[in-house]
Write a structure and sequence with these properties.
The chain is an alpha/beta fold and about 200 residues long. It has eight helices and six strands; from the N terminus they run βαβββαβααβαααα. α1 packs parallel to α6 (about 155-165), α1 (about 20-35) crosses α7 (about 175-185) and α5 (about 140-150) packs across α6.
């Protein structure tokens, strides 16, 4: 039986800053969806390519068709933000009244904030702004959980685990494990499985 989606294409944006594992997260999620029989197109945009610059992956998923890699403005169905300000930035461009959002609450301060020229919004301000722009918003301490696992970059996998628990895509731990075992050294598999499970539990 062919897998189905809430809409065709189903448009996902994974956003963050350089060094957070944004591209890896998009590849892992896309590989899972391909294994379920979907046609997946990925488009990536980079601000500053160095660590700290904005990174955004567009993932377009369809049961039958191949779509252009760029999601039209205002047409995202799911936004996965590895950094909170990036969530707001993407929502303003790609959000709509029905979009769902997952936000990792660990801030990464841009240079202007570090030098004191700019001010980073409070967590409460960010939560209010995201909630006002989305139909559903979930906030996770993904980086903190990843640090407890010994590697902060595993926050990206915590977020993918959270995606699995939303119920909007037919992906699960078994499928994730198959992708990870094929694509990673064996020594890294267990930590990734634990990160995925933490993300699942956070949204369940």
């Amino acid at each position: 039986m062919r897998e189905t989606l809430a809409k065709d294409p189903y448009n996902i944006v994974i956003t963050g800053v350089g060094g957070q594992g944004n591209v890896m997260a998009s590849r892992v999620l896309s590989n899972m969806l391909v294994r379920k029989g979907f046609r997946v197109t990925i488009g990536e945009t980079f601000g500053m390519s160095q660590r700290g610059g904005s990174v955004m992956s567009h993932i377009r998923v369809s049961p039958t068709a191949v779509w252009s890699p760029q999601i039209p403005k205002g047409m995202a169905d799911l936004i996965v933000a590895l950094e909170p300000i990036e969530a707001i930035r993407v929502l303003l461009d790609y959000g709509n009244p029905s979009v769902r959002v997952l936000v990792n609450l660990r801030a990464i301060y841009p240079v202007g904030v570090i030098t004191g020229e700019d001010e980073y919004p409070s967590e409460g301000t960010i939560r209010d702004a995201v909630a006002a722009l989305a139909a559903e918003a979930r906030f996770l301490a993904a980086t903190e959980e990843a640090i407890r696992l010994g590697n902060p970059i595993l926050g990206n996998i915590v977020m993918i685990g959270a995606v699995a628990s939303l119920g909007v895509l037919s992906i699960d731990r078994k499928l994730f494990e198959a992708v990870i075992r094929d694509g990673m050294p064996a020594a890294l598999v267990e930590a990734n499985l634990r990160a995925f499970a933490i993300g699942q539990a956070a949204v369940a």
